[in-house]
Amino acid sequence: MQLSRRGAAWMLVLVTLIWGGGFAASEYAIRAGLSASWILLIRFSIGSLFVLACFFRKIRPAPARMILHGIGAGVILFLAFFAQIVGQGKTTVPNAALLTATNVVMVPFIIWAFRHRRPRPRTFLLCLATMCGMVLLTLDGELRIAPGIGDLLILLCAFLFALHIAYLELVCFHDDPIPVAFWQLLTCAVMSGLSLLIFPSALTPAQLHAGLLPVLYLGFLSTGACYLMQTKAQTVLPAARAGIVMSLEGFFGTVFSLILGLAVFRPAMALGGIIVTLSVVLSSALDS
Questions:
Q1: Of the N and C termini of the chain, which has fewer Cβ atoms inside 10 Å?
Q2: Of all helices (H) and strands (E), which one includes residue 171?
Q3: For residue 197, is pLDDT > 70?
């Protein structure tokens, strides 16, 4: 059955819900003492094996073009996640979640730069509203924006995620999502292993035991299941709209961090969350 744009938008909402929980899972893995390289290696190895086990027959005959597209997506994705994990270790969970979601503002401009296709005015308005919500969500207790090195790394990560979203539209729009998803996850796993050669770090049994459940969540759900759904959704949904919907990731990440006691509630969070949610709901009713 052909996936509709509305169905694709709601599929991405589910993706962002799972990814929101992924920020908490990453935080627990970091607190267990796992390095960024180990977290990513385990995560993407599990994710790629999960996709391979479920869809082996569709992956094996993939044309070289789709393999190359998946590898390109994987390189961008690895760099984004490496910056995110390192940055999250130097900032708070809400900041990591919500600054990551600023990629929604960057996507239309990347598409504009590569395709010379100016976004519609309503897309700019929705992006601006979402950005205002992000600002409110990242204010500290004294109503100031207080960025540090971790926040700057998260902003770099946001740009790379925006580039990844745009890449899927520009290059992979008509591809079969399953082989593309597999090859991008496998590329991330390989690059994570190579990063251990550059940034060597030990992995003790105690660290693995403490971080195992969070990393399993990241591998099976946040990676294997979610990147299949994202790649599938973006075969029918334009990148600008997909970016707006996926900005919900920051909202869900903040909610989970509050529920699990990983962050302290601030009144500005509520207003910012409402603005972001309304922007996403409005975007789901629009065809870009």
A1: N
A2: helix 149-172
A3: yes
Shortest CA distance to 171 belongs to which of 71, 55, 61? 71
Report if residue 245 sits inside a domain. Answer: yes
Mean pLDDT of 264-271: 77
Q: How many domains in the chain?
A: 1
* Angle at the Cα of 73 from the Cα atoms of 6 and 151, rounded to 5 degrees: 85
Query: What is the rounded distance in angstroms from the CA atom of residue 84 to the CA atom of residue 254?
Result: 15
Q: Which of 157, 151, 102 is nearest to 130 (CA)?
A: 102
DSSP 8-state symbol, 225:
I
Amino acid at 73: A
Residue 154 lies in a domain: yes
- For residue 211, pLDDT beyond 90: yes
Average pLDDT across the chain, whole number? 85
Which residues are 139's β-sheet partners? 145
Residue 288 domain flag: no
Mean pLDDT over residues 2-29, rounded? 90
Residue 246 located in a structural domain? yes
**Residue 281: what pLDDT?**
67
Q: CA–CA separation, 150 vs 162, rounded Å?
A: 18
Cα 194 versus chain centre, distance = 22
Match 């169905």 to its residue by tokens: 7
* Predicted pLDDT of residue 139: 67
The parent domain of residue 24 ranges over: 5-283
- Measuring CA to CA, which residue among 237, 175, 167 is closest to residue 8? 237
Residue pair 112/134 in contact (Cβ under 8 Å)? The answer is no
CA–CA gap between residue 280 and residue 247 (Å, rounded): 8
Assessment of whether the complete model's pTM goes beyond 0.85 = no
Percent of the chain with pLDDT over 90: 41
